[in-house]
């Protein structure tokens, strides 16, 4: 994927996602990645007795495997017909980004709260986060929805666009495998503490630069949408490191500053209260109306990110 065609592929993939989102009835490559990972976990554990080494091999084979398979598919499609190869690349990059899905899912949470259906809102947000939702009030649900939109702007939009711009559709697919593995095995539990550590570290590395690039991107979006670009940038710089994740705090702090709300903080996980530092410490807790504001901010940031990646491809040729 090079030159003008590369820019058009990214642009077309973005337009497809914004128009169609994630059609539930169509087969999705990420689901196939999850199936492959689930089936290969046990064989890798059996093959290597050291859990960390087994997890390293597991991640390396799956990530490199999806890159090679995607590259081979793209090359064969281009050999069959250039248009077929281009269409395949567009569809693959489209499958790797999810701004419309984020917008829609957060919107459903907001609609449920606005209609007074808190139980439904809790059920909807429970599908997006790992913390317990049974005792969440309107503000806690709103906070969780905003955090989901903010964090996933990086790994669901900006990072796959960066990989697509640099390594084409195979690179975007390889990143989605990294992200999928992190969501499946990258947990600090007895079962995955060692086996999942390579996948978690690989995900941290893949998102490291985009998580920092997102600060000026979100700040520019905030300047255009909310007139709070300076505050978004300042909050991201001063409080973006207040998170156990090396990456997640940056977009969440930028959103906190842009919207003027307090995010993260204590949460209940698996029945236990986990103390986490607040981000946006000088702001009040969010309310339901901040959810659509966060969605608009994310969409503006998506358009800016897409423009940057398209421009990058046009410049490097």
UniProtKB/TrEMBL annotation:
<keyword id="KW-1133">Transmembrane helix</keyword>
<dbReference type="InterPro" id="IPR004485">
    <property type="entry name" value="Cobalamin_biosynth_CobD/CbiB"/>
</dbReference>
<comment type="similarity">
    <text>Belongs to the CobD/CbiB family.</text>
</comment>
<dbReference type="GO" id="GO:0005886">
    <property type="term" value="C:plasma membrane"/>
</dbReference>
<keyword id="KW-1003">Cell membrane</keyword>
<dbReference type="GO" id="GO:0015420">
    <property type="term" value="F:ABC-type vitamin B12 transporter activity"/>
</dbReference>
<dbReference type="Pfam" id="PF03186">
    <property type="entry name" value="CobD_Cbib"/>
</dbReference>
<comment type="pathway">
    <text>Cofactor biosynthesis; adenosylcobalamin biosynthesis.</text>
</comment>
<keyword id="KW-0436">Ligase</keyword>
<keyword id="KW-0472">Membrane</keyword>
<protein>
    <recommendedName>
        <fullName>Cobalamin biosynthesis protein CobD</fullName>
    </recommendedName>
</protein>
<keyword id="KW-0812">Transmembrane</keyword>
<feature type="transmembrane region" description="Helical">
    <location>
        <begin position="297"/>
        <end position="316"/>
    </location>
</feature>
<keyword id="KW-0169">Cobalamin biosynthesis</keyword>
<comment type="function">
    <text>Converts cobyric acid to cobinamide by the addition of aminopropanol on the F carboxylic group.</text>
</comment>
<dbReference type="GO" id="GO:0048472">
    <property type="term" value="F:threonine-phosphate decarboxylase activity"/>
</dbReference>
<dbReference type="GO" id="GO:0016874">
    <property type="term" value="F:ligase activity"/>
</dbReference>
<feature type="transmembrane region" description="Helical">
    <location>
        <begin position="52"/>
        <end position="76"/>
    </location>
</feature>
<dbReference type="GO" id="GO:0009236">
    <property type="term" value="P:cobalamin biosynthetic process"/>
</dbReference>
